[in-house]
Amino acid sequence: MTDARRFWRILGLIVLGAFALRVGYVMVAKRHEPVLGDQIYYNAQANTIARGHGFTDFRDGSQQAEHPPLTALALTPTSWVMERFDPGGSHLLAQRLTMTVFGAEVVLLIGLVGRAVAGDRAGLLAAALAAVYPNLWINDGLVMSETLATLAVALAILLAYRFIRAPRLATAAWVGAACGLAMLARAELGLLLPLMVLPVALMLRSLPFARQLGLFALACLAALAVVSPWLVANLTRFDEPVLFSTNDGLTICGANLHRTYYGEGTGLWALDCAGFPVPRGDRSVVSNALRRDGLRYIRDHVGRVPVVVAVRIARVWSLYAPGLMANYNVNEGRDVEASWAGFVAFWLLVPCAIVGAVRLRRRRVPITPLVAQFVIVTVTAAAIYGITRFRTPAEVSLVVLGAVAVDSWWGTSRAPDTRPAAVETSA
Predict the structure, then answer these.
(1) In the chain, what's the furthest Cα-to-Cα distance?
(2) Is residue 117 part of a domain?
(3) To 10 degrees, the CA torsion angle through 83, 87, 89, 90?
(4) Within a domain: residue 422?
(5) Is it the case that residue 275 has pLDDT exceeding 80?
(6) Domain count, the chain
(7) Is residue 423 part of a domain?
(8) In a domain, 419, yes or no
(9) The domain containing residue 234 runs over which residues?
(10) H, E, C per residue of 4-45
(11) Could you tell me the pTM of the whole model?
């Protein structure tokens, strides 16, 4: 058996094991759990689309864009099939099982990223770690955006390494398209373009500066092409301009309140502003009013902002009040025990990831696509609020870098060459 066939066979077994673990978690812990938090939206929206009503509210038929569309669209085929057997049902269990499929695909892609940066064995170790890492499988039992966002981020990282090896028009377009896909899962992942793709393009020193900028511009255009159908739809169906969602106003308002600036809720998000008086109108009008309320609160309490931002960042990295975060996570369907398992695994993995990053740098393997995820998570938490599920882009990098460290302790192996290849002018 060739090394490539052996790699794919073992990787396939790991992915199957990851899938079995996630299905078991759903069937044991989530089978009868009601929808909580954002799951309410994704569950209902997928069913509404499957019933032929598009992105509308099932209660009154009004236009809706509470979140970017990828998660609801990914669940729509499941809802459509289930409608044939259970018309009008919630289809929640089937949707949760569908998420386990995407979770297994995350494991597959993480294995390929590990292989790209450090060879076959590191790739298999990365996949094995991803298969059992609680901060990944905890999302795969929920009908939320984190699993799809992680999948898109892992794909973007993998394609970024292919871009580094072969900086062509085609590879630039593919990594940009992956970033666009990530934005359709979570809008803040648009930060992949300036914080990952741009640094990667600028590190290609063998290329003229104009060529570097041109490749980055092409990646941005590819991302725009992917997200443009959603943007155009939103700009034409609401009273006021909407880009990715009508939820940004509620997000900003809920993150900038007395309860999230002072006391034990500092750095979190609260639903208090949902009861604020807002003008009559569709969701875009309401969102704009809530956004103004949130921004007004920031201006009125600007002296408190540095403290709040510091706490947000500490929370997203599990450095501040993890017990409170475990209890907070329950409101989104994450069990306290699973949250604590995630905290412990994270704290154990961080020093391994640091060692892995050092090892790659010593081998002259670019780590920009991996390190960029930590910056993206930090910026996101500082700008919005700090909860552990916002850390999902960095979980991919943590697992890969941790696997590199384990691989280096296991024994020496020849890492693949991820330095830029000779410049090619054709796509």
Answers:
(1) 68
(2) yes
(3) 30
(4) no
(5) no
(6) 1
(7) no
(8) no
(9) 3-410
(10) HHHHHHHHHHHHHHHHHHHHHHHHHHHCCCCCCCCHHHHHHH
(11) 0.94
